[in-house]
Structure formats: C-alpha cells, structure tokens
Hints:
It is globular and about 65 Å long. The chain has helices at 6-25, 29-49, 54-75, 87-96, 112-126, 149-160, 169-175, 180-193, 217-235, 256-261, 273-282, 294-303, 308-326, 338-343, 353-362, 369-382; strands at residues 98-99, 138-142, 163-168, 197-202, 242-248, 264-267. It is of the alpha/beta class. Residues 108-111, 145-151, 247, 249, 279, 282, 308-309, 312 line the site of adenosine-5'-triphosphate.
Amino acid sequence: xxxxxxxxxxxxxxxxxxxxxxxxxxxxxxxxxxxxxxxxxxxxxxxxxxxxxxxxxxxxxxxxxxxxxxxxxxxxxxxxxxxxxxxxxxxxxxxxxxxxxxxxxxxxxxxxxxxxxxxxxxxxxxxxxxxxxxxxxxxxxxxxxxxxxxxxxxxxxxxxxxxxxxxxxxxxxxxxxxxxxxxxxxxxxxxxxxxxxxxxxxxxxxxxxxxxxxxxxxxxxxxxxxxxxxxxxxxxxxxxxxxxxxxxxxxxxxxxxxxxxxxxxxxxxxxxxxxxxxxxxxxxxxxxxxxxxxxxxxxxxxxxxxxxxxxxxxxxxxxxxxxxxxxxxxxxxxxxxxxxxxxxxxxxxxxxxxxxxxxxxxxxxxxxxxxxxxxxxxxxxxxx
Length: 384
Ligand SMILES: Nc1ncnc2c1ncn2[C@@H]1O[C@H](COP(=O)(O)OP(=O)(O)OP(=O)(O)O)[C@@H](O)[C@H]1O
Ligand SMILES: [Mg+2]
C-alpha cells in the first residue's frame, strides 16, 4: 500500500516556515538558516511524493537553499544582493499566512441560506463539468460587524481541508508598502501550489475605497494586481480549487472595478430569532440550559440588534455571573500554588434567566436601525 505523506509533510513545512520567519524577524540568523535548509529538505521530500508537481517543488526547494545562503551571508556581514524582499521573500511571507482552521459549518448558528450558497459555490468549483460552466472565483461577504463572515470563510476552508490563506488587507499593505503587488502575486503563486486553497481577504474595504479619493499609489497597484490575478484564474483551465473570499462591513466603499470581480455578493445578516437560539446554544454548550427559555432570550437578542459576536459576549457574561455566584471566594484561591489549584475544580451549575439579566444590560450592539437600512438598500441594488 502506498502511503500519502504529502499532507503531513506540508503541515511540517508550514510550521517550519513560521519558525523561519520568527527567527528571521528577531535577527537569529543561525536558526533562520537552519530552518530555511529544513524547508528545502521538506520540499524535496514533497517533490518525491508528488510526481505531477515534482518540478515546482524542486524549484521551491532550490529557492529555500538560496534563502539559506542569503541568511548566512547576512549573518557574516557580507552584503547580499536582493536580500530582503526578493521574489522568494514574497512566497515565504505568503506561506506564513497559511492558517489551520478547526471551524466547521456546524459551529455557525443560523445563516442557513448563506451556508448553502457557499457550499454550492465550492461544490461547483470542484465537480467535473462542461467547459462553459464557469465556477465563481470570488465571493464577497458583507454585513454588520460580528455576524460570522470570518467564521464562514474559516468553515469553508475547514470543511474542505483546503489551505486557508488568512490575509488582513491593511497588514499586508503596511508590511510591504510599495511592494505589496508583488506580495499579491506571491500569494496567488503559493495558493496555486497548495491547492485546494481559499484566499480570504479580510477588511477588504481597506484595499478598495471608491470614495474619499485618497487611495494611495501602493494601494492602487496592489488592487490592480489582485484584479489581474482574479481574472487570470478564470482563464487557467485546471481542476484546482482556488477561491477568493473577501469580507467587508462597508460594501458601499468598494470600487466598481472590484465589485465586478465579485459577482457573488452575500449578505451576512444579523441573526433572526431562531438563529439567535442556535448561537446561544453553541456558546453555552457543555452547560445545562434546561431551565432557560431560549426562545425568549433569542427574541430579546433580536430586539437589541445583537450580532453573533454580541451573543457570544452575552453568554460569556452570563457564565461569569454563574461562576461568581457559585464560587464566592474565587479570588482568594490566587494565593495557592498552581499545583494545588489543579487539585480543585470550579463549581458550576446550570444557567438560569437571572444570569442573563445584567449581561443584557451591559451589552450594547454597535449597530443602529439606520445602518441596517443601508445594508438592505445596498443588497437590493448590488446583492446576490
Ligand atoms: N452565526 C454565528 N454562530 C456562532 N457564533 C457566531 C456567529 N456569528 C458570530 N459568532 C461569534 O462571534 C465571533 C465573531 O464572528 P466573526 O469574526 O466571524 O464576525 P465578522 O462578521 O467577521 O466580524 P467583523 O466584520 O467584525 O470582522 C465568532 O468568533 C463567533 O464566536
Ligand atoms: Mg471578520
């Protein structure tokens, strides 16, 4: 029986790349060099077990050997041409954005329609199909803060076992200001290499503001590379899944050129009463909630315009209320050594309506009805 080791080798590679970056960032050239060489070795092993992509991986391995050489030269004070942000550096940085996600569809309460739309999109991208049926390459998730946009992207990657590139737009901009378009090319090169991949661009509006007129040159360049990459993907005939998900709270700020690349625009709404009940259950699981009237709590959440994040905070506060009531002298235990603490356990009881009273007082939704109206209007004009 042939055992496929590439998955395990790939996760070791990702871990080693992170270690390389950490060493490189704190100037520990000796460890950085060792880690770069380890990356090269791992890529060579991956190349052996992936005959179809052998050449790509061998080329990457060679690039890591070059990085190791550059690090060594830097360590010994020699001047190295193109050390710093060479092409390799961008690929390496892109690979450090790979995140593992334990999130699954079942961790998301409500949003049934949105989940269905996303699942369909992914399934269509993966299935064999006539050439004229083009899968969506980009999905825009928009909606108020805390409604589960990041969670949805993570669930899509988690359930597919896809490589998840977690890109915070403004962080990339500030790290590679002026060179961020190379960074985007590196990102898509890495995403193709690690396919199936999901590239998740959070805070997408930071990249693409149609108003205000102060979009910098760097941002414009980055954006045009991103658009080229998105267009390019459309033309490449391959069974690879490479999906770009973008999330924003302010879809009205998006440039029309950008919007046109994201024909699938999904409104991630505040939860309805039923979804609120589900989210309440998700964030109180392990605890006895049999004496709670979840329906009434859910209705209260809807009245208060709570998002999933607000409900999570609500549950946390209710849980803390219960813990404080059951363990009145909790802070005194801070005197005990840690080993002794481990011998004791926290007293818990089921949650009751009382636990939620103060929590409802404390948690205020940042969203107003007029904000919601703005989302509804945008949805009507431009949405799915
Ligand atoms: N539908 C949901 N089901 C369960 N938990 C949720 C849901 N929506 C939000 N949450 C909780 O709120 C947290 C924040 O959600 P998330 O980060 O996905 O929101 P977001 O829409 O990306 O917000 P932002 O626009 O501020 O980035 C999640 O980690 C989760 O704990
Ligand atoms: Mg988010």
